[in-house]
Amino acid sequence: MGMKQLENENREKKISDTQPGNNKKTDINQRAYDIELSIRKKFHKALFSRFTKAIKNYELIQPGDRIAVCISGGKDSMLMAKLFQELQKHRQIPFGLVFLVMDPGYVKENRLLIESNARMMNIPITIFESDIFDTVYDIEKSPCYLCARMRRGHLYHQAKELGCNKIALGHHYDDVIETILMGMLYGAQVQTMMPKLHSTNFEGMELIRPMYLIREQDIEHWRDYNHLSFLQCACHFTETCCTTTDESDSASKRMEVKKLIAELKKVNPYIEGNIFKSVENVNVDTVIAYKKHGIKHHFLEEY
What's the burial of 280, exposed, middle or buried (CB within 10 Å: 0-12/13-18/19+)? Predict the structure, then answer.
């Protein structure tokens, strides 16, 4: 084949690729590229830098890890998947990834939304099914708590079956400070959402939260900048809540705390950072009692 003929064929191929009906794959690839570029450029400091900082500060990844990135279909977990892909490209730490999606009984439209977003964002997801939604549907007391516990158990099990030693969840900075306040106001205890945990039921498995230092408003900014629409809530109790604009039940304790923090921030702009740091600066010499490994200790023991 002559050089002239090869150039003509290449030119024809380029023209063909731009014709209507032939550019669907190209459009999807461009969308994925633009989303990844926004993480590298515009949101590098707010998202990727804080992602890597949490991984370094809390020693979340070790060489040889195989991590199940747990994707619910919401903005947080989908972003986490892209951040992990970006981190893997840097090749500073050798580790493997599985992008794990559990279908606990989604309606067809919600599952299709997760699948289409994954294709568009170039995330090679692995889906497995469970009947968690049906199991907790008739539970009157704390169905959401039971659902979350069961989800985690299923994720641990499936991740271990796939050869993973860690599961990664997409909880962010705002989840952490809300959890701290919820524990104080509604649970009468001082506790936090830990950046990593050893599994008590699955030997050798660990849970990590690499988005620990990322602010929710920055996640929302990234989502809106890229014109993305993710699953918000898809359980049987709120099946119609499947867009980014719907809100959870305003009466929920987490929503109440979220609103409380927003009000406190109007008076003290440092309130969020102070809440976060409060569990890093616990002075056990000035507390009445504390628990260690499930055993309660009282200050009178050493008074």
Answer: exposed
